Amino acid sequence: MISQDFLQTLATEYSVSNLELKVLELAMNGDSTTTIAQKLEVSEDAVRKRLSEVYRKFKIPGSGPVKLTKLQQLILSRYQEHTVQSSSNSSPNSLNFRQQDVNPHQIWDGAPDVSTFYGRAEELATLERWIIRDNCRVVMLLGMGGIGKTSLSVKLARQIQDSYEYIIWQSLHYAPPIKEFLTNVIEFLASPQKIDLPETLYQKISYLIRYLRQHHCLLILDAIEVILDSDNQVWRYSNELEGYGILLKRLGEEQHQSCLVLTSIEKPREVALQESRTGFVRSLELKGLQPEAAQQILLDKGLSGEHQWLELIQTYRGNPLALKIAAATIQEVFSGHTSEFLKYESLLASNMFREILDWQFKRLSNIEKEIMYYLARENNLVSVQNLKMAMPTSITTSVLIETLESLRWRSLLEKVQSEGKNTTETLFSLQPVVMNYVNSEFRDVRDKH
Ligand SMILES: Nc1ncnc2c1ncn2[C@@H]1O[C@H](COP(=O)(O)OP(=O)(O)OP(=O)(O)O)[C@@H](O)[C@H]1O
Ligand SMILES: [Mg+2]
After folding, report:
1. CB 3.0 to 4.6 Å from 30: which of 38, 149, 351, 355, for a disulfide?
2. Structure letter (DSSP) for residue 91
3. Peptide bond just before 192 cis, omega within 30 deg
4. Looking at the DSSP assignment, which residues form a beta bridge with residue 138?
5. Minimum-distance ligand 1 atom for the alpha carbon of 145
């Protein structure tokens, strides 16, 4: 649990007022705007204003998604850094970290500390194989909020760093315009040589690709969902960020000896169109942590009631962020007793993911929403055929399949293969947290569909 003192120190550092801090604490605990307003006896508008001040002060970007989740992560990672530093300034990990950070050929801009990292051996092995053995040019880590994409990308980069001359780990949270981004990267790769950069975007990318051909570079762009536009299509970019799409496309298509690793909640079109199982562009759908690894997180939090942990882990599908937040609530409110928490879990789970799911839901097309309502109402695995029968006749099978694909790209659908005697059928459903969210937030709308 993040200590009060630590939050107070952060508040001072970021000039957060006492009232803003109170709102922040309640929001971090998963309270909705309405509940916070009631608890603090202020209007909901005042709560929203204070929260947006907090986001501004912590530089959580205005147009970005899942602001509360991002803020929680920022605070958690600052807290982890703080505890690692204060518990052991001379531990091998922290020394290692500092040494790597001063390597003039590496940038780790905003990369979280991954000295506490559990499981993921299989994913790391797959990614290493794709990148080192198969020379993939673009590799995407796709998964829902908090599933561990950022941490895995850092762990991976740390693990394979010796194979690269240059490493650039860059978060897109502040989404710099593409030309600025390219200028920074090229100047870094060219340093100490001073260069005259060409003006146009196309030429700048060509310039970068020249470096990526001459040198082994590992480029990691984290949270690229931030630059994808929200007009009901996974494929477009916000106007001034459009050039990132061209960059992705060219890095996937053209020959070079470097690798671009991307993390995102949603899959951009360039990756979807270019990827294949054996080609140079691949994507890995990140699921939650295996139970053993997830248990480590709960163990670290000092929870009791181990026999109920599996239920907790299953409910959150091994999502480490959800487990961390749940564990904090269990400690704080239920004195460490998991069983108590589980009684209220369905209420709390949707709260926890409300920010992130609000953001994702706003981006859905009407057909996508229809499918989500239907799956939430069914509360079960559903085949394409059943979905087709349940949808209005105006939705053709091809539109239905395209829409299912789009929902998968948005990390919102679970998919299972059901093996019959001679046939295999693909079935879809929502994971419990998403199901809870749709059922509680859209009960009225859902039932009209
Ligand atoms: N393998 C792991 N072992 C321990 N903790 C982990 C692991 N993976 C992630 N975490 C923790 O879970 C939280 C969420 O992880 P992370 O930020 O990597 O998720 P994300 O998928 O990038 O989320 P977002 O979509 O919001 O950016 C962090 O606090 C991180 O430290
Ligand atoms: Mg992330």
Report:
1. 351
2. -
3. yes
4. 260, 281
5. 25
